[in-house]
Amino acid sequence: MTEVARQHEPGPVIEVAGLEKTFRVGLLGRQVEAVRGISFSLQPGRVLGYLGPNGAGKTTSIKCMLGLIQPSRGEIRFFGRFHRDPLARARIGYLPEHPYFYDYLKPTEVLDYAGRLYGVPAAIRKRRIGELLERLGLGHAMDRTLRGFSKGMLQRVGIAQSLISDPDLLIYDEPLSGLDPIGRKELRDLLAELRRAGKTLFITSHVLGDIETLCDEVVILRRGEAVAAGRLEDLLRRDLLESAATLRTPDAGAADALVGRFGDGVTVQQRGDGTLVLRLPSARVFELTQAAAALGAELVELHPVRDTLEELFVRKALAVESGDDTAASARPEAT
Fold first, then answer.
1. Concatenated DSSP letters for 274-335?
2. In terms of Cα–Cα distance, which of 20, 40, 12 is closest to 332?
3. In the predicted model, what is the mean pLDDT of residues 6-26?
4. Which of 88, 116, 261, 311 holds its CA 20 to 30 A away from the CA of 237?
5. Average pLDDT over residues 83-110
6. What is the domain range of residue 38?
7. Are 247 and 269 within 8 A, CB to CB?
8. How many domains are contained in the chain?
9. Is the residue at 133 inside a domain?
């Protein structure tokens, strides 16, 4: 890959517009809409979390993007090029959800073969194979066959394979799957390192805490549709609409009086040992302090409540499970 080819062109690295995929299943050929009208874009150097419960259409979307299956409708472009263009595909590293390798091969052989397919020169292949295996904690096992590797070790081989050509865009489908806590931390650190190096990352994961730490923006799917899309900092409610207050009450009667005074507008998060933790609208904090003083309660701590990615995910992607379909309308919550 020449230096000229590696320069970032202006515009998005990924552009998806109106992506749809319909499958026919069963003897009668019943149509199932796996992906329905998804659109998003991703700028260079950004990290996008592509989220949703099982069966929401994440892996199907990726397969359409990579040309592994044919979309029913829609347009997909990488680096401003048609998604099947070899020049665009050569700049992508991919890790499937369940990577598979011939178990009689060694990690060095897998990476050497992948490097050859990408056209990486022999001298660079040799250097990068050693660096990647050491970086991913596989240096001790580089001369062992994959037959004896654990699931987590195979996952690391797949990640190393995705990096062998030093791609500009990395598409990872559940990269944290099968890793133990130490392996997850190491991979999280590697992804953060790749981000700092200017790589563009597209990641699906059920480990929402890691996604929140890594990602600049998210797309949340439900039943094949995007129900939330945009920058993470805009989607999470950081406008301090709610606050959490910790109070020390003189007795149980004072605690009951405080809770009763605010009615449905307050959520009791913790109660016991003379301590009361309330979550309430920020607009009522002054009212709370006045009521606490009148009842002889001491305000120990007060801080704004920030929405989390997990709360956003449950509210948008899983609301249908509880029967509250209004909380996750078909129109994306976008910014």
1. TEEEEEEEGGGHHHHHHHHHHTT-EEEEEEEEPP-HHHHHHHHHSGGGGT-GGGG-SS-EE-
2. 40
3. 84
4. 261
5. 93
6. 3-91+167-235
7. no
8. 2
9. no
Lookup: tokens for 247: 């109070």
Which of 219, 203, 231, 232 lies closest to 332 in space, CA to CA?
A: 219
Residue 7 has pLDDT above 80, yes or no: no
**Main-chain phi, psi angles of 31, to 5 degrees:** -85, 135
208 and 285 assigned to the same domain: no
* Domain end call among 235, 268, 288: 235
Q: What is the pLDDT of residue 5?
A: 43
Instruction: Based on the fold, state whether residues 47 and 83 are members of the same structural domain.
Output: yes
Specify the CATH number for the domain of residue 262. 3.30.70.3400
pLDDT average, residue stretch 91-110: 93
φ, ψ dihedrals at 116, nearest 5°: -65, -40
Residue 194: CATH number of its domain? 3.40.50.300
Residue 71: partners with Cβ closer than 8 Å, 6 or more residues away: 19, 20, 21, 35, 64
217-268 confidence digits (pLDDT tens) = 999 999 899 988 888 878 876 545 778 888 888 888 888 887 887 766 677 7
- Quote the CA–CA distance of 87 and 109 in Å, as a whole number: 25
Cα(79)–Cα(87) distance, rounded to whole angstroms? Answer: 9
The pLDDT of residue 295? 85
Amino acid occupying residue 135 = R
List, for residues 108-143, the tens digit of each pLDDT value: 999 999 999 999 999 999 999 999 999 888 999 988
Do 77 and 193 sit in the same domain of this protein?
A: yes
Average pLDDT across the chain, whole number = 84
Q: Say how far apart CA 227 and CA 334 lie, in whole Å.
A: 9
